[in-house]
Amino acid sequence: xxHILIVEDEAAIADTLIYALQGEGFTTAWLTLGQAAxxxxxxxxxxxIILDIGLPDxxxxxxxxxxxxxxxxxxxxxxARDGEIDRVVGLEIGADDYVVKPFSPREVTARxxxxxKRIAPRVDATSSSxxxxxxxxxxxxxxxxxxxxLTRHEFRLLHCLLEQPRRVFSREQLxxxxxxxxxxxxxxxxxxxxxxxxxxxxxxxxxxxxxxxxRGLGYSYSPDHS
Length: 226
Ligand code: CA
What we know:
Order of helices and strands: EHEHEHEHEHEEEEHHHEE
Shape: elongated
Strand content: 15-25%
CATH topology of the largest domain: Rossmann fold
Strand order of the largest sheet: 2-1-3-4-5
Structural class: alpha/beta
Largest sheet: 5 strands, parallel
Number of strands: 11
Bound molecules: calcium ion
Helix content: 40-55%
Radius of gyration: 18 Å
Distance between the termini: 42 Å
CATH superfamily of the largest domain: Response regulator
Oligomer: single chain
Number of domains: 2
């Protein structure tokens, strides 16, 4: 069963999560400090981390940034406030979901299951489209023979576009593809992921424009422009 690391300084909240998750068969570890969580993930990687934003040492955002330097483990933030900025910032730094306190432990458990299901590796073989080749096993996309350094969200986004050349995907569909709950307000994060992917493509070929913008609709991959 998947192992979940809970990083939360309020014991009562951690207790309800541990109880709910263990009741569903997950194994759990609990820490109260962000720095300790980053260190533990290096030593004994969890399959998913539930990360409180307001921690006594470093913020959950900072802990997530540090985690992203070496791991693509799914992260679900717990926040005391329902701030739109928090949501967007959280997703931009690579979180998978976001829950606002007070929450029901059952809801959190359901979301944990949903995230783990979304990220379950698909058994695709290496495929290629135009100048791209995709290796889902190694989470690697190469463009014109050069491996791209992509975040997990960027990889999923580009992979989704490449799988169906010329199809126009809405931001909502792309959010779904990257594995982010498509609540209102998250669409902006797709634009910033696209911007970042485009910059990485241009770093390989300056005039590359394989990702097309369709105003009011979304984005598509055009093999003709790659
Ligand atoms: Ca807290």
